[in-house]
Design goal:
Blueprint lengths: L1 H11 L23 E4 L7 E3 L7 E4 L7 H21 L3 H18 L11 E3 L4 H4 L1 H6 L9 H8 L7 E4 L7 H19 L4 E6 L1 H13 L5 E7 L7 H7 L8 H11 L8 H5 L2 H20 L3 H5 L3 H11 L6 H14 L3 H10 L3 E8 L1 E2 L7 E2 L5 H5 L2 E2 L31 E2 L9 E5 L10 H12 L15 E3 L7 E5 L6 E2 L5 E6 L6 E7 L4 E2 L5 E3 L4 E7 L6 E10 L8 E9 L1
Parallel strand pairs: 1-5, 1-6, 6-7, 7-8, 8-13, 13-14, 16-23
Antiparallel strand pairs: 2-3, 2-4, 9-10, 11-12, 15-17, 17-21, 18-20, 18-22, 19-21, 22-23
Helix pairs in contact: 2-3, 3-12, 7-8, 8-16
């Protein structure tokens, strides 16, 4: 059932992503000695009904069961419902089939009108004593250690008795979750005898941690906090699914997202040719609205995924001031207090000694189809507070940084492709951006994983200006992305008048790449015709003709060696003057 919910709510939010082995291990940093608390994404925490009683049942998580007979019995009506919907647009049988299939799980996940749980639901592990990796391994419960692609890397450095998994009831709002986190941190400090903890928080967990920092960030119990693609101010995908218009998921983007998530370099874009994208969008919308929406609207977490303006509109549309007063009270506090002032809260936490770092992704359209710059799941502005151009466009010529948070003229907070202005971000000096990386896929990018571990476990990197190896703006370096390009004498995305050599790196673990052409206005490249770059190898290409331009776009056309029928790819790389 979790996989079914992941197709609907994960295409809706995609915040809880299954973990699989990582591509590459980064070098192990020296641990600073603080216990580490891992906070995972939406739907990640296991939920158990009637914990400790004879009627105990795992609803979601390790040990949850699927009713195969129920699935098989629902298939005929679902198939018939899809056919009728395709031919006539009538969705009654379709919704009924999915509703029957999901009814048992959805009923057990259900919340009452005030936002409280219908049943006695708890998380596991819940208490700090049972939530350390050491305890879970000793009890044969290692399956409860989530997101192994990331947590295994952290555990190479941090002893298991100092690594803790924080679970929250992800149906509840962040006002509740952040207060539970405050209690949990105190328990970890008591158990370990340490003065401070480090926190790694992913996606929905990043919103939990940001909310905690807003209300408790000055209490001197936290050292390093890494918010990786945090849903700090929600995601517009929720607005798209709850709104009146149809969703517009891109099959091309979904296929690339799946390739990264499944760790395959196979070209899955053929799915866009096989599957009827418009029909699937309509199908998804119907199933979500008819089957999942009635339950989702009673989850405080869904309301916290909305930005302030969307919350105002949908609150008036969907919530009854009397029946839903419990939801409204906490959602109002979240939106009009915490989210409305989150930048100030995060900066105050840093001033109090908390080393808060944000890792944001950009360069991809929002999955539901709106031309919003995102990491496919969460708007870049929601994770970072930065100002972004409409996806597919760039800032106008002569654009200058807004400078509302950082107005230091010596700091260039505009992305090389001129689409992100981080000078107005929540934390301009402490937010790193990776172009083209999909939501939750940091573990499959050796560069991002290295940065993540250094920010979390060490004090080596104090801000985005600390190291040229970790610039504020970088390009995703996952094998699926195939190619990485930079000038050898500058940090990624920058050039100067003396830049005369281009580094081309083949990120693929499987394929040699054949370079067919390299083009850029004002530059010439001395590249051997059909030059081949082996997997994991680099090629240095002399270039000349770079003038005093402020901006260069280099387009490289390449193909996989030996795959005659595979079409060539053209990838653009953007550079601004250093």
């Amino acid at each position: 059932m979790k996989k079914l919910i992941s197709i609907i709510l994960c295409l809706a939010m995609l915040c809880g992503i299954a973990a699989v082995p990582t591509y590459a291990s980064s070098s192990e940093p020296e641990w600073d000695g603080d216990p580490v608390i891992f906070i995972q994404g939406f739907t990640g925490s296991p939920l158990i009904k009637d914990k400790g009683l004879d009627t105990e049942e795992t609803i979601l998580g390790p040990g949850s069961e699927f009713n195969i007979q129920k699935i098989l019995s629902a298939v005929p009506s679902i198939v018939m419902g899809i056919a009728i919907f395709a031919l006539t647009g009538n969705s009654i049988l379709l919704s009924s089939g999915f509703g029957d299939l999901a009814s048992d799980k959805l009923d057990k996940l259900a919340c009452l009108a005030d936002g409280s749980s219908k049943y006695n639901i708890s998380t596991y592990p819940h208490f700090a004593e049972e939530a350390s990796a050491a305890s879970l391994v000793a009890n044969g419960e290692e399956a409860y250690i989530p997101e192994v692609a990331i947590t295994d890397e952290i555990r190479k450095t941090v002893p298991d008795e100092y690594f803790f998994v924080f679970n929250s009831d992800w149906r509840m709002g962040q006002i509740d979750n952040s207060e539970r986190l405050d209690w949990f941190i105190g328990e970890v400090l008591r158990i370990t005898g340490k003065d401070k903890v480090d926190i790694y928080a992913l996606s929905h967990g990043g919103q939990t941690a940001a909310t905690y920092l807003y209300y408790h960030g000055t209490e001197n119990e936290v050292d390093n906090v890494v918010l990786n693609v945090p849903a700090i101010c929600g995601t517009s995908i929720v607005k798209g699914l709850l709104g009146d218009g149809a969703a517009n998921f891109s099959m091309d983007e979904i296929s690339r997202f799946l390739a990264v998530m499944l760790h395959t370099e196979a070209d899955l874009r053929i799915l866009g040719d096989i599957l009827p994208g418009r029909f699937l969008n309509d199908l998804l919308k119907v199933v979500f609205v008819d089957v999942f929406q009635p339950h989702a609207l009673r989850f405080g977490s869904i309301w916290d995924f909305m930005d302030v303006e969307t919350y105002k509109d949908y609150k008036a549309k969907y919530l009854n001031p009397t029946e839903n007063a419990g939801i409204i009270e906490k959602a109002d506090k979240m939106h009009f207090d915490c989210m409305a002032n989150i930048g100030e809260g995060l900066r105050l936490a840093r001033e109090s000694g908390v080393n808060v770092s944000i890792m944001s992704n950009y360069g991809t359209r929002l999955g539901s189809g709106e031309p919003i710059d995102a990491d496919f799941v969460i708007d870049t502005v929601s994770t970072s507070g930065a100002y972004c151009a409409v996806h597919g466009e760039q800032f106008e010529d002569g654009y200058t940084a807004k400078g509302t948070v950082c107005n230091n003229a010596a700091h260039n907070h505009i992305s090389p492709d001129r689409t992100v202005d981080a000078s107005c971000a929540y934390l301009p000096e402490h937010t790193w951006f990776v172009r083209g990386q999909y939501h939750g896929q940091a573990a499959y990018d050796s560069y991002t994983m290295s940065l993540l571990l250094k920010l979390l476990l060490t004090d080596e990197i104090t801000d985005v200006h600390t190291s040229p190896d970790y610039p504020q703006f970088e390009i995703a370096q996952c094998p699926v992305d195939a190619m990485y390009v930079k000038f050898t004498n500058e940090i990624s995305g920058r050039f100067n008048s003396e830049s005369n050599e281009l580094l081309v790196r083949n990120l693929s673990a499987e394929y040699s790449l054949v370079i067919r052409s390299i083009e850029a206005d004002g530059c010439t490249f001395d590249c051997e015709r059909r030059a081949v770059v082996a997997p994991g190898e680099e090629l240095l290409i002399p270039c000349e003709g770079i003038d005093d331009s402020d901006y260069i776009c280099i387009e490289i056309t390449y193909a996989r060696q030996g795959e005659i029928l595979t079409p060539a790819f053209t990838k653009a790389f953007y550079f601004t003057a250093a």
